[in-house]
Specification:
Largest sheet: 6 strands, antiparallel
CATH superfamily: Peptide methionine sulfoxide reductase
Strand order of the largest sheet: 5-6-10-9-8-7
Distance between the termini: 41 Å
Radius of gyration: 15 Å
CATH topology: Metal Binding Protein, Guanine Nucleotide Exchange Factor, Chain A
Number of strands: 11
CATH class: Mainly Beta
Strand content: 25-35%
C-alpha cells in the first residue's frame, strides 16, 4: 500500500497522487496536478468581488489578495501581484505552441495559471489564475 501521509519538508508539501485525488475535486486535481485549464468564464471566482485572501486549494498557501484582483476580461480571475512574492514560483511553459510563464504554488507545486506582461499598474502584470486552484477566505 502506498504511503498516503502528507510530508512537509523545507515548507514544501508532498502528497501521493492517491492522496491528492482523494482531497481535491476532479477539476482541482486536473488544474493543480495535471496543469489543466478551466473553461474561460466558468470559474467560481471570475466575477467574485468579495474582499479577502485567495489561498491555494491544494495546500492553503496564501497566494493573492482581493485588493490586487481586477477584471481583465480574459475569462479567469486576474491579479496584478501575489500577496507574497515567495509564495509563487514561475517557470517557462512552451506547451500548446506558445511561450508563456507558468505560475505555481511554491508550497505544493500546484499549477495555478500563467502570468502575462499586459496588466495594469503598478506592476504591469496579469496573473491569470484558475478559480479551481484557489479558495477565497473572505475578510
Amino acid at each position: 500500500m502506498p504511503d498516503t501521509k502528507t510530508k512537509i519538508t523545507d515548507d514544501k508539501v508532498t502528497k501521493s497522487e492517491e492522496q491528492w485525488r482523494r482531497e481535491l475535486t476532479p477539476m482541482q486535481y486536473a488544474v493543480l496536478r495535471e496543469k489543466a485549464t478551466e473553461r474561460p468564464f466558468s470559474g467560481e471566482y471570475e466575477h467574485d468581488e468579495r474582499a479577502g485572501t485567495y489561498v491555494c486549494a491544494g495546500c492553503g498557501n496564501v497566494l493573492f489578495e482581493s485588493d490586487a484582483k481586477f477584471d481583465s476580461g480574459c475569462g479567469w480571475p486576474s491579479f496584478t501581484q501575489p500577496a507574497v512574492e515567495s509564495h509563487v514560483d514561475e517557470e517557462r511553459d512552451t506547451s500548446h505552441g506558445m511561450i508563456r510563464t507558468e505560475v505555481l504554488c511554491s508550497k505544493c507545486s500546484g499549477h495555478l495559471g500563467h502570468v502575462f506582461p499586459d496588466g495594469p499598474g503598478p506592476t504591469g502584470l496579469r496573473y491569470c489564475i484558475n478559480s479551481a486552484a484557489l479558495k477565497l477566505e473572505p475578510k
